[in-house]
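User: Structure please.
Assistant: Input sequence and predicted structure:
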Amino acid sequence: MRIGELAARTGVGERSLRYYEQQGLLASDRTPGGHRDFPERAVDRVIRIQELYAAGLNSSKIGQILPCMRDEDGGPSVRATPALVAELAAERDRIDRMIGDLVRSREVLDEAIVAASGRIAAEA
């Protein structure tokens, strides 16, 4: 499939797809006219890349972890190093801390909403 179709099917811009390819995260063949030709499995790969970005990983880390992850076309081709696993666990711990902070922030807002609602009701 051409880059425009891949972009449409994944919701990821063509510029980002070119960047993924430049970083070695995504691969394509070339048509005789020089256009990129992506395999069907590229859709799943782009979605996986987006999920990893959303998890807070950068392209370098994604490049290290992608070969260790199960893809649509089979199992992982390599095992992650202990150092990479430790880095990923540290990133997960950071996200857990952020989630805890967000939950506490929501609780404070809930208290403020209740307090503000009580004042409005008392004034009415």
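The first strand starts at residue 29 and ends at 30.
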